[in-house]
Amino acid sequence: MEVESALERFHSLKLGDIIPRLETMPVVTADSDLLSVLKILRTRHHVWVVDSRENMKLVGVIRYIDVIDVLLPPEAHKFKLGMTSKTMRSMLGGATKAEDVAERHVLTVEEDATVLDALMKMRKYRIQVLAVVKDGKLVGEVSLRILIDELLRLLRVGGAQWRA
Questions:
Q1: One-letter-per-residue 3-state SS of the chain
Q2: Which of 102 and 84 is assigned the larger pLDDT?
Q3: pTM surpassing 0.90?
Q4: Minimal CA–CA distance to 44: which of 74, 20, 77, 11?
Q5: Which residues, at least 6 apart from 144, have a Cβ–Cβ distance to it below 8 Å?
Q6: Measured between alpha carbons, how far is 20 from 124 in angstroms, rounded to an integer?
Q7: Most buried of the four, 28, 33, 68, 153, by CB within 10 Å?
């Protein structure tokens, strides 16, 4: 298999066919306490926040970098205009649950979208991971690492060789 045809096949793969099992993903419910979120973020770059395990309705995401806002005191967030949403995300500002600190504007991609669709969205928004949804419910995630693994798997299976 030539690299070109492997890439064409890679680009046309449906995300639903390559995303990891939901059980392996970092997911918490909206009412989870912040300490459980922090424990997950010791080894993961993000945590998906869902309404409940039953409905899996996506509420938001908490990224590793967001922990800075959680740990800072509220006064560190204050600007001339007064309170900001980041002030409320501070543990000392009253945040106690995952939903208190979650970023609500999550970039998503549909389960039946292709790898190419996901790559285009990642490039457009300069992000490395997207929530994969079906009817507003979290069904998986796709990250650059997952896509790299899948391309390498395809190349190994097809016996493609990179040529200089």
A1: CCHHHHHHHHHHCEHHHCCCCHHHCCEEECCCEHHHHHHHHCCCCEEEEECCCCCCEEEEEEEHHHHHHHHCCHHHHCECCECCHHHHCCCCCCCCEHHHHCECCCCEEECCCEHHHHHHHHHHHCCCEEEEEECCEEEEEEEHHHHHHHHHHHHHHHCCCCCC
A2: 102
A3: no
A4: 20
A5: 122, 128, 129
A6: 23
A7: 28
Q: Show the tokens assigned to 25.
A: 């993903």
Tokens representing residue 27 in the block: 């997911």
Residue labelled with tokens 């949403």: 85
What CA–CA distance (Å, rounded) separates 20 from 65? Answer: 23
Instruction: Summarize pLDDT for 77-96 with one digit per residue, the tens.
Output: 665 555 556 556 788 888 89
> Which strands make up the sheet holding 137-143, listed edge to edge?
108-110, 129-134, 137-143
Instruction: Give the pLDDT confidence of 138-159 residue by residue, as tens digits.
Output: 999 999 999 999 999 888 876 6
